[in-house]
Amino acid sequence: MILISHRGNVDGITQDRENTLSYIEEAIQLGYDVEIDLRVKDGKTFLGHDTPDHPVSLEWLEERKHKLWIHTKDVQALVFCKENNLKYFFHEKEEQTLISNGLIWTHDLDNVTRYSVIPLISDKLNLKDFSKFKNCYAICSDFVKHYENIL
Hints:
CATH architecture: Alpha-Beta Barrel
Order of helices and strands: EHEEEHEHEEEEHEH
Number of helices: 5
Oligomer: single chain
CATH topology: TIM Barrel
Largest sheet: 10 strands, mixed
Shape: globular
């Protein structure tokens, strides 16, 4: 199972560092993949959940593309990722969303498959709860460090 850091968080939410290049790099150096939020504004790419906060270059994204799961936040970011062969997805409130690599971003925890990437975003699960997800493809969380210890 792949453990995906949510916006760079590995052991709880550090909101002021989320989606920053240095924070993402720290999570990658610890061995995790990272889910990031990408926006395009005026032809330029930015990281940021609600707003385009941190400029990011195509080169930076390409160098790390095997470790990044890009949540595109607007249609321009969706097109940018498709044109540059990056791993990406887009969703708003859907229970299941297809990721560009063929896996499924799965919010519906009653329908988890071996192709599911589960966003357990902001909470720790106890060992009993976690065990029902052991056969999914990946988990994305602010607490990936916690899950590493119980795999």
